[in-house]
Write a structure and sequence with these properties.
Elements: H1 19-22, E1 25-26, H2 28-32, E2 75-76
Antiparallel strand pairs: 1-2
Length: about 80
């Protein structure tokens, strides 16, 4: 993921980003949308992301067969 992260995209390296270390700014959406679920840097999905969805009961029925999921991160690299 390093080639796609703002902290490391120009250094030519590959591998994982130490997000807990490099993402030092709290996303302003955390304050504005307190009921939203934000991703933390240490979250991992065990197995299949759709099959092991811990919040499947809260999702729209149209998504039962699968979807691409994404959430905003709690901590980000830059000050917007």
């Amino acid at each position: 993921l390093r080639p796609h992260h703002l902290a490391s995209w120009r250094d030519g390296t590959t591998g994982l980003v130490a997000e807990r270390r490099v993402n030092r700014v709290t996303n302003p959406m955390v304050k504005g949308l307190p009921s939203m679920n934000f991703l933390n840097p240490d979250e991992l999905v065990d197995g299949h992301i759709i099959m092991n969805d811990s919040k499947a009961s809260t999702r729209d029925p149209a998504l039962r067969k699968g979807c691409v999921r994404g959430n905003a991160c709690r901590d980000i690299w830059w000050e917007p």
